[in-house]
Amino acid sequence: MLQQITRGIKITVRTSFQGTFYKNYTMHFAFGYQITIENQSKDSVQLTSRHWKIKDSLNRTEFVDGEGVIGQKPVLKPGESHTYNSGCLLASPFGSMSGSYTMVNFRSARHFGVSIPTFKLSAPFALN
């Protein structure tokens, strides 16, 4: 489990290996992750967008940008949290993800970035 706090927003990440499968004659490694976003600030905020950098051990990098998370733009009052699950596919058994969320503070109407800590993705059978 990894945690990081940016401007009063605490991000907690848990990862899991989901298995392997073939797609278009290529083996893929599926990873899941659970993220909890906790508002420890004094203001209500809303998550508006996300930015991900996904790397595998074959030196391939993919960037993913989009609105909200899993189709939602959660509003968090002080002390509230939002947890969601998602995943990614890699062409190798090792990789990492890092990124950020863009949020808006309702009191000031200003947008700000929240860092997502870099987390490792690894298939347990590939570890030595």
From TrEMBL:
Residue span(s) of domain ApaG: 3-128
Domain of life of the organism encoding this protein: Bacteria
Listed InterPro entries: ApaG-like, ApaG_domain, ApaG_sf
Pfam families with a match to the protein in the record: DUF525
PANTHER family the UniProt entry points to: OS05G0170800 PROTEIN
Protein name: ApaG protein
Species in which this protein is naturally found: Nonlabens marinus S1-08
